[in-house]
């Protein structure tokens, strides 16, 4: 009973400390609420659309004008202007009025009617990779569509029906169906992974503030006992669980991100991740001697940790030492695991490597934290 009483007392002390510290409360809970609405806002369109392009039409034929109309009808493109002079198109790009250009040569329709292959030049503004990709792919699709239509007309003249002509041109049909990121958007790709890192970093900052305050004031509230450690660990773990419930249960639904693939596996991963992050936070917090130290040390680490997780940057492109060291961070396994279970419906067996990594880190952080916890007397 004494052990249980000590654990419950530590649980209550932890929640009183969290609710009584405005900065810690902001980091533990309020920051997640603010982040969930304002961070995805710039990506709410999901995909880049209506990128302005300039068209240099030196042919001015029926086919070239059709190419211009189809460019304007493409969902990713918008015709900023049509001219016959490349210098004018270049001026539009320099002024920021266009992010790409398509040059239709003067012999475009003549070559097509003669059965020859004309050359259409397309170019994008490489300073903006996302816009450049949409421009180059979109213009290539427009030119390819016109080319396919011309080829079908030629085949149609030599075949009994249009369907046979289409089958001759494309004997194997391809239908592209996105399975998980159904809108193929940037927000659905990046936000579900980043929120896992957010839960880790805001928690570590918050617990660093609490432990730094106690150290600087000389009033560590817990007894140096295992039961007190267990109570504090359970309370801090619940903080991470509540944040996970907010993001996975409400935010993903509200923002309409891919979700609900395997709720049971996601729940198991959440519980393990929560204990792992809480154990890491307690261990790190015991080293802080001032309230501000956690902010100074941890704020700048978020971006490198995101790259190490293999989400925004392929893990195979990392130096070999970093490919191993990145597994020392809970976010590495958690990001990969949550994306697999929550978005793709993976089973626990399929994320066994991530679960094993989190379990090993949890045991290590608890052992390290408990060892330092016992050596710190109650003030």
UniProtKB/TrEMBL annotation:
<keyword id="KW-1003">Cell membrane</keyword>
<dbReference type="InterPro" id="IPR051449">
    <property type="entry name" value="ABC-2_transporter_component"/>
</dbReference>
<feature type="transmembrane region" description="Helical">
    <location>
        <begin position="189"/>
        <end position="215"/>
    </location>
</feature>
<feature type="transmembrane region" description="Helical">
    <location>
        <begin position="266"/>
        <end position="288"/>
    </location>
</feature>
<feature type="transmembrane region" description="Helical">
    <location>
        <begin position="295"/>
        <end position="315"/>
    </location>
</feature>
<feature type="transmembrane region" description="Helical">
    <location>
        <begin position="351"/>
        <end position="370"/>
    </location>
</feature>
<dbReference type="InterPro" id="IPR013525">
    <property type="entry name" value="ABC2_TM"/>
</dbReference>
<protein>
    <submittedName>
        <fullName>ABC transporter permease</fullName>
    </submittedName>
</protein>
<feature type="domain" description="ABC-2 type transporter transmembrane">
    <location>
        <begin position="25"/>
        <end position="370"/>
    </location>
</feature>
<keyword id="KW-1133">Transmembrane helix</keyword>
<feature type="transmembrane region" description="Helical">
    <location>
        <begin position="23"/>
        <end position="41"/>
    </location>
</feature>
<feature type="transmembrane region" description="Helical">
    <location>
        <begin position="227"/>
        <end position="254"/>
    </location>
</feature>
<keyword id="KW-0472">Membrane</keyword>
<dbReference type="Pfam" id="PF12698">
    <property type="entry name" value="ABC2_membrane_3"/>
</dbReference>
<keyword id="KW-0812">Transmembrane</keyword>
């Amino acid at each position: 009973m004494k052990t249980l009483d000590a654990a419950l007392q530590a649980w209550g002390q932890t929640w009183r400390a969290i609710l009584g510290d405005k900065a810690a409360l902001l980091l533990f809970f309020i920051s997640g609420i603010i982040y969930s609405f304002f961070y995805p806002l710039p990506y709410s369109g999901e995909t880049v659309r209506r990128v302005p392009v300039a068209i240099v039409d030196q042919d001015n034929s029926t086919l070239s004008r059709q190419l211009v109309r189809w460019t304007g009808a493409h969902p990713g493109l918008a015709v900023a202007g049509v001219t016959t002079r490349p210098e004018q198109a270049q001026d539009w790009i320099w002024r920021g009025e266009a992010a790409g250009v398509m040059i239709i040569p003067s012999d475009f329709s003549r070559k097509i009617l003669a059965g020859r292959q004309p050359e259409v030049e397309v170019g994008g503004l490489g300073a903006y990779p996302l816009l450049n990709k949409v421009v180059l792919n979109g213009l290539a699709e427009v030119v390819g569509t016109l080319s396919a239509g011309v080829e079908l007309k030629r085949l149609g003249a030599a075949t009994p029906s249009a369907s046979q002509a289409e089958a001759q041109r494309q004997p194997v049909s391809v239908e592209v169906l996105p399975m998980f990121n159904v809108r193929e958007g940037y927000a659905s790709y990046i936000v579900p992974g980043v929120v896992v890192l957010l839960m880790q970093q805001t928690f570590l900052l918050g617990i660093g503030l609490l432990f730094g305050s106690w150290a600087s004031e000389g009033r560590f509230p817990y007894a140096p006992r295992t039961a007190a450690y267990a109570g504090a660990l359970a309370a801090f773990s619940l903080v991470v669980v509540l944040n996970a419930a907010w993001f996975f249960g409400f935010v993903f639904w509200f923002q309409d991100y891919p979700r609900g693939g395997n709720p049971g596996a996601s729940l198991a991963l959440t519980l393990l991740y929560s204990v792992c992050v809480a154990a890491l936070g307690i261990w790190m917090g015991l080293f802080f001697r001032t309230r501000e130290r956690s902010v100074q040390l941890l704020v700048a680490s978020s971006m490198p940790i995101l790259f190490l997780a293999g989400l925004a940057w392929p893990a195979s492109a990392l130096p070999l030492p970093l490919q191993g060291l990145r597994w020392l961070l809970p976010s590495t396994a958690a990001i990969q695991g949550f994306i697999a279970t929550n978005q793709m419906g993976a089973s626990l067996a399929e994320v066994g490597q991530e679960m094993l990594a989190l379990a090993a880190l949890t045991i290590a952080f608890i052992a390290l934290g408990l060892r330092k916890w016992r050596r710190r007397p109650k003030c």
